[in-house]
Amino acid sequence: MAHGETLREAIWRLIREGKLTRRIRRKDLFQNLGGQFSWNYLNGALGDYCEGTGDYVKKGCPPLFRKISRGLYEVI
N or C end of the chain, less CB within 10 A? Predict the structure, then answer.
């Protein structure tokens, strides 16, 4: 875990380390990033950063995820 990492940086680091795949669920974020980011932030991150529909995306942030099916997202 690197201090000051953004969520995007942390997820891609975990993918490079083989701890996450590009297809993730909320529990994957909790298990791998629960000590680095607040539970409340992680709980909403998949929806808020979702391509096309996420609140943060609508406010101008780049999307982090694409919804594949209910509860399953792909890191983009």
Answer: N
Total count of domains within the chain: 1
Q: Which amino acid appears at position 50 of this protein?
A: C
Q: Is residue 59 part of a domain?
A: yes
Decide: residue 33, CB within 10 A, 0-12 exposed, 13-18 middle, 19+ buried. Answer: buried
- Tokens 């980011």 belong to residue: 37
What's the predicted TM-score (pTM) here?
A: 0.84
Q: 45: domain range?
A: 7-75
Is 16's pLDDT higher than 70? yes
Residue-wise DSSP of 7-58? HHHHHHHHHHTTSS-SEE-HHHHHHHHTTTS-HHHHHHHHHHTBTTT-HHHH
